[in-house]
Amino acid sequence: MKKSIIVIVFLLGIFAQAQNKKWTLKECVQYALENNISVKQSELDLELAEVEKLTAKGNFIPSLSAGAGVSENTGLSFNPVTNNAQTTTFLSASGSINVGYTLFDGLRNIRQLQRADISKLSSQYRLDKMKDDISLFVANGYLTVILNKANLEVLRSQNEVTKEQIERTQELVDAGSLPRGDLLEIKATDASEQQQIINAENNVQISLISLAQLLLIKDYENFDIEDEGYNIVDDGVSNRDVSDIIDAAKANRSEIKIAEQNVELAEMDLKIAKGVNWPTLSAFFGYNTRYADTPSFTQQIDPDNPTVTEQIGTVQGTGQAVIGTFPNTFPVEVAADPFIDQLYQNDGIGYGLQLNIPILNGFNTRGNVQRNKVSLERAKFELEQAELDLESTVYQAYVDAKGALKSYEAAQVALESQELAYDYAKERYDVGLTNAFDFSQSKLRFDNARIELNRSKYDYIFKLKVLELYFGIPATELKF
């Protein structure tokens, strides 16, 4: 009984710990990379590329096929062993093995294997890009939750101040030091703040649900994140010249590598298409054998009368008969040879070379070559466009990061000013030198300044990490 109670308490402890688990950003990113559907689809594309490579390797292996057949014939048919027409019922069987090997096909097999290697590498780059994109989506969703939580904390802490002011104002109104209108103004502020808190709580819940959906976590109610310890960590990328970041992005980003692989694929497709114009030389070898269970007939000499004399003609002119002596034979039925013996007796082989020279096929080959030339030029243009797009995107990310930093610094200065103004307004309100409305407005500006600082802080963190990602820092190694 005691052991059962201990086990139950232990399991309840584990369950409670699981319910209270708070996910870190690193855990969220890792979980998304392992479970996200888009990532899994990209991994399947990589597996298909591996299958394509295996198929290309198989082109260098000889083709091998075997066949066998059994049939029973009734009536007039040809015996497959004797090749004689027979009216009977017999069982026959046949078997064959054929081997073929392509000796030369215009280097198409070699280029198909090279193309499969390029295709696999391209699929790997697509998988890497998908992981980077998912990591950024998760980081953005995570920082959004942190921002909403920070804003909620601001509203709650300031509402505590408002409640304290209500109590103090109530005392002053009861003492006749302040008009009742000031108390009503403070209570109106409290009601407005309560509404803002409810909206902020909804924003936190909605952002948590959005993040959980991105991670494919269905337990929305118990999902939560670790919302502390995320500050601005700059490894110096923001201080680099934008040209250095653009060069690093061109050297490291998957977008460019994918476009480069597409050019190589188009070049290889063109070579494969041109290879169709070359002659194809192949070798073949075949072995076959057969069996039939029908008896055969042989001629046997009569031991009692071994010869027979017959006239075979006359001499022209004299009319003298020409006599011939022949063996006196009669037909004897012989049973079919054993199965194994017939396989050896009736086997045969065939081998040789086959040369196929393409001459004219309705311009299909020529048209295919032209199409692949166009595809190659298109791939080159796409590579050039990808480089231009990446350069523009990196430059925009660089400007956004710089602008976000300035906005964050400005928000810090604004918060300091609003905090001083708030403290001054509070002091004046406490001694009755200002009314509740002016104090509420000062407090509202201070709250907004704190919220704006939170927004600008996490906006800068995200844009800084985007810039670091373009610089070549892996998504899993970004520091927060």
Structure explained in plain terms:
This protein is of the alpha+beta class and 480 residues long. The chain has a domain of 39 residues. It is 62% helix and 18% strand. The protein has 10 helices and 8 strands. The strands form 3 sheets. Strands 1-2-3-8 form a 4-stranded antiparallel beta sheet. A hairpin with a 6-residue loop joins β5 and β6. α4 packs antiparallel against α7 and α6 packs across α9. The longest helix is centred in the N-terminal third of the chain and has 68 residues. It starts with a helix and ends in a 9-residue tail after the last helix.
Q: What is the fold's blueprint, element by element?
A:
Blueprint: H1 2-19, H2 25-35, H3 37-58, E1 63-78, E2 85-104, H4 108-175, H5 180-214, H6 242-252, H7 254-275, E3 280-292, E4 296-301, E5 307-314, E6 321-327, E7 329-334, H8 339-345, E8 348-356, H9 364-430, H10 436-471
Antiparallel strand pairs: 1-2, 2-3, 3-8, 4-7, 5-6
Helix pairs in contact: 2-4, 3-4, 4-5, 4-7, 4-10, 6-9, 6-10, 7-9, 9-10
Subcellular location: Cell outer membrane
Family: Belongs to the outer membrane factor (OMF) (TC 1.B.17) family.
GO molecular function, one term: efflux transmembrane transporter activity
